[in-house]
């Protein structure tokens, strides 16, 4: 078992990474169904929470079936983070996570997210302020450092543990790498194997197959793995990794029925949580991923993205089941998209 404060997770837990505009309740629901052991909300601005911005408040929505779930906040000011922590407390998630990893300009260059990696003393003060303002277990998610000349994650891990965080998730890139290159897990392994470190260390970055997950588990000894992009359009990654780690055998890819059932559930949750118009609209970006690999699916896909009401969408989904029922699906490699490709680093 892996313990984060008072939360007990199974051995080698799989975490769904916090992802802005992705890890919302509908997406989390299908990841939970498919084996995610711990999930996080999208990051929430501490300033936004304090101003009571509707967009930030809405991201606090969590449901009992999602537990254990963490709410992630970011900010660069001690008082604001402390106040945001008190607001989060009222929502009663299972844990509170601080984002010290976001590389995008609007966050990192304002001294929040990965921006804090340039100033460990500040990071420690911010974390301490949060730990003192909440009774929830506090965790941190961060990167290896600001850039290749400032790879300070080993010091960061020790100092954050000393101020009371209960787990650390490390994305194996620097801020300046954004999403470029390959994630380097060597330093993550070093942090994990530092005898002073007692808290769980979760590795993150580029896990896109059960084989890679097991290889990295064995090579770096991490307590669990956090998965982001691979779960987008493929929530089955969680159950596939679990199965492979436990048995050494590869699960067959999801059947057509399973794929359509995930679309149905995601759609239902989207409509419930976002309302019909926004829910149906935002589902459009998901169909292609969920239905990938079905031969000649284009015709159905273009119908799905044009329809504006739930009932006819559900009819098309029924048609897909009818047409492809019994089709043996082939496994297709998961593509990891570089989401911030166009985001300037400076
Ligand atoms: C679209 C998108 C949004 C993200 N938003 C957040 C976020 O809100 N908070 C955070 O800590 N990391 C965020 N990340 C980073 C991921 O949590 C994760 O660290 C990163 O994608 C690397 O993991 P992966 O290779 O498994 O995707 C985001 C990543 C993506 C692709």
UniProtKB/TrEMBL annotation:
Its EC number is 1.3.1.-. It comes from the Bacteria. CDD domains: DUS_like_FMN. One of its GO terms (molecular function) is oxidoreductase activity. InterPro entries: Aldolase_TIM, DUS-like_FMN-bd, DUS_fam, DusB-like, tRNA-dHydroUridine_Synthase_C, tRNA_hU_synthase_CS. Residues 15-318 form the DUS-like FMN-binding domain. Catalyzes the synthesis of 5,6-dihydrouridine (D), a modified base found in the D-loop of most tRNAs, via the reduction of the C5-C6 double bond in target uridines. Belongs to the dus family. This is tRNA-dihydrouridine synthase.
């Amino acid at each position: 078992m892996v313990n984060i404060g008072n939360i007990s997770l199974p051995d080698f837990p799989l975490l769904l990474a916090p992802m802005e505009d992705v890890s919302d309740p509908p997406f989390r629901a299908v990841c939970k169904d498919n084996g995610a052991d711990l999930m996080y909300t999208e990051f929430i601005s501490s300033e936004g929470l304090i101003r009571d911005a509707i967009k930030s408040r809405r991201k606090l929505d969590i449901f009992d079936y999602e537990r254990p779930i963490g709410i992630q906040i970011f900010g660069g000011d001690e008082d604001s983070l402390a106040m945001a922590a008190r607001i989060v407390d009222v929502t009663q998630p299972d844990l509170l996570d601080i984002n010290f990893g976001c590389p995008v300009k609007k966050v990192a260059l304002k001294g929040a997210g990965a921006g804090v990696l340039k100033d460990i003393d500040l990071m420690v003060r911010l974390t301490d302020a949060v730990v003192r303002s909440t009774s929830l277990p506090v965790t941190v998610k961060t990167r290896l450092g600001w850039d290749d000349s400032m790879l300070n994650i080993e010091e960061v891990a020790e100092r954050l543990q000393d101020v009371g965080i209960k787990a650390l998730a490390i994305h194996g890139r620097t801020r300046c790498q954004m999403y470029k290159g390959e994630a380097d897990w060597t330093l993550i392994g070093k942090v994990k194997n530092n005898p002073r470190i007692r808290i769980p260390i979760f590795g993150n970055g580029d896990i896109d197959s059960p084989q890679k997950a097991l290889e990295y588990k064995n090579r770096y000894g991490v307590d669990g793995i956090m998965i982001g992009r691979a779960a987008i359009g493929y929530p089955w990654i969680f159950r596939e990794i679990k199965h492979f780690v436990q048995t050494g055998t590869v699960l067959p890819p999801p059947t057509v029925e399973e794929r359509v059932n995930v679309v149905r559930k995601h759609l239902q949750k989207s409509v419930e949580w976002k309302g019909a118009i926004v829910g149906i609209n935002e589902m459009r970006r998901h169909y292609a991923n969920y239905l990938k690999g079905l031969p000649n699916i284009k015709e159905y896909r273009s119908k799905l993205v044009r329809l504006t009401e739930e009932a006819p969408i559900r009819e098309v989904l029924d048609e897909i089941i009818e047409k492809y029922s019994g089709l043996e699906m082939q496994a297709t490699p998961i593509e990891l998209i570089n989401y911030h490709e166009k985001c300037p680093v400076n």
